[in-house]
Amino acid sequence: MDIVSKKPQAKYEPGELQKTRENIGDIAREEAEVMMKRLGGEIGVEKPEIIDDEVLKKVRSARKFVPGKNRKKKDEQTEQAERRNSPNRRGGSVFSAGERTSAVISGLPGKKYRLPHLSPRQKQLFDKLMISREYHIRNAPGFFAMLFSFGRGGPERVADSFIKNDLTAHIRHIDLFIESVQALILAVPPSYKNKINTDNDFIYRALRVIYNWDTLPVKAELSLLKKKSSWILIEDTVPFIKELYRPLIQLYFLGELEMTRIIKKTYGWTVKTQIREKENMRCLNAARQAAAEWLYIFGQVIKGAYPLLMRMCVNEFEPYPDFYTKRISDIMNFLEITKYDIVLPKRNDEKERLHKTVQIKTEGTEAAKAEESPKETEEAKKESMSEEKRGLILQSLGVLDKLFPDAGWLHLADRPDMYPYFQPLYSFPDGFNLLAPTNPLQVTIVLLRIIEDFFQGCRNIPLSPPDTEDNPLERDNLQKIFSDWTLYREYLFDRLMAPALKEYVNHAYTQSDFRNSRYAKRELSNWLWQIKFYFHPHLVFEITSLEYPRIDNSYIPLPERIRALVQVFSDMIRQADASEASMPTDLSDIYTFDVENTVSYRLNLLLGGSKSKERTNLNLMKYTLCALRVLDWWINDKSSYAYVSEQKIPYRTSGEGDTQPLLSVPVRSDQRDVFLRNIRLLHEAQKSDAASTGNSVQNAPPASQV
Fold this sequence. Notes:
By secondary structure, this protein is an all-alpha fold. The chain folds into three domains: 9-54, no CATH class; 160-344; 398-705, no CATH class. It has helices spanning 16-24, 29-39, 53-63, 69-84, 120-131, 143-149, 160-187, 190-198, 202-211, 216-227, 238-252, 255-271, 277-304, 306-313, 322-326, 328-335, 350-363, 366-370, 374-382, 387-403, 419-426, 440-458, 478-510, 518-534, 558-578, 585-588, 598-606, 617-636, 671-688; strands spanning 9-12, 44-46. Strands 1-2 form a two-stranded parallel sheet. Residues 1-6, 62-110, 143-153, 348-385 and 690-706 have low confidence and may be disordered.
């Protein structure tokens, strides 16, 4: 038999070999021979494509030419491209009519941007960066994709979750930043508005860039990406990345510190024109919002999408943030901007700048408070704990001790371990067990869970906060707070923070020198920053990394909400007690819980049993207020025991001075017995004290003290 003349077997589907060639890319003949030797197999060809009459009709109709139609479509594409590339499309004064012109976004298919060619080594570095947990821009490739790529140009697909979640969040935070700065600019005196329009000082240039920042083009490009039914490749995101990074690069070199100073200075200008206190507070809130959003933009947006920008600009990997300094010329060429478009701060001593940056990050808000107005300083002084407030806190801690006796509420200064007591009651997920008793977050998580039980009953009360001029729930409401409450614990801690803590503890447990590594210091610093952002604004810890972690700002901050809740509940209870004779029927009704929980069971017994008339909605609100007041003091008061010492080791250890994690902790089983014994003692005290029999709420906080 003549083997040479044997016809290859047709065993592949039509188009299958072409797809394989595209995935492998262009390779040399020698490399192809090596692949054949490694993979083996038989030679085959594609099966002939079946062509019927219907297919022929479709081909013929697609080839038909309509006179004038194709030419019109081409002219439209050309005109739109000219308008899009016009250098004057971003021009205009800050305060003139038609100041910000939106770009024309073309949804017509065009020639894709060709990414720079990468060597196999560089492609490996880029892929590893984009697939990493830190950026998650691309999903990890499957087995066959890895088999046929061999380090060469396979399709680079962007993860759908990155497009829909991360990029969408980035645009939302940018919008909030722009809106806040624009509100400040509109409130400044006319003389400063003229300077913003004309002056070339970097402060006024920066404000001018922000005011003229138009997010319409980038939103349009993002919308096009979301509508794509096929795979989204990196080259498909080029228009979006260009629109996203043009203004960001213009402001990048201002950094976090300089931009914060610009925002503070702009707020200082607004104070000169504000007469009403309410307007001044709006400007102050806008300044705080702008500063917070810029921290997110600088730490998450500029960094979070930098692998995509780097892939489009250069063919060599550069780590963050060296990429923005070493390859700035390539970046400007890609974004089609010049050095004159970039806003640069005044030249300062680099050592002094670094020292100030670290100092500000270490001290938190102390530096900001030093520059605040005397009026704000006076308000800060008023917030110091008075004797009356101290008495209310001690009383509220006593109420928690009655609900959960022997848990340690009256000895928080000694940092009692809450885990053994509350774990059998609430079954916290993994991660909570790793929190050290010295970590203030342990008490915070427990209080959040207890208040969650209280809110199950408060949901059924038709609460109506008093109509006052100073409404703490101006942009919030009680029902929304009740709905969102679990997210502070289940999402922010359980899903965002607990996995990172578990990973850190696992490394520290298996590697004795892990805590001294650069990676460990960065991860620990980021985790402590998250505690500071989400739960404890006055937390003090050693700064080991200048990078901010990824922060989710989609929720109203817990410190702000808890302070508003304390005020609202106090006002409602005070109003009800003042008009006891005409108390609303709703507050005198028996409270109801849809499902019995730990708090409802203990509260029923504490108030006299399931048939007691003391189980009113008003008393439920009083007990809820006690838990809220303790949490407010714990996280918002600098003098609380949560802030008495600097945080160094946030995880549980076997003893002071030990750095080895402790993974196993025995839990208690006598909580129920301790509580019932305490109830019997309270009831015996009631019988022996005749004066207590006339008290409507024996164990609830007295109305005069709430």
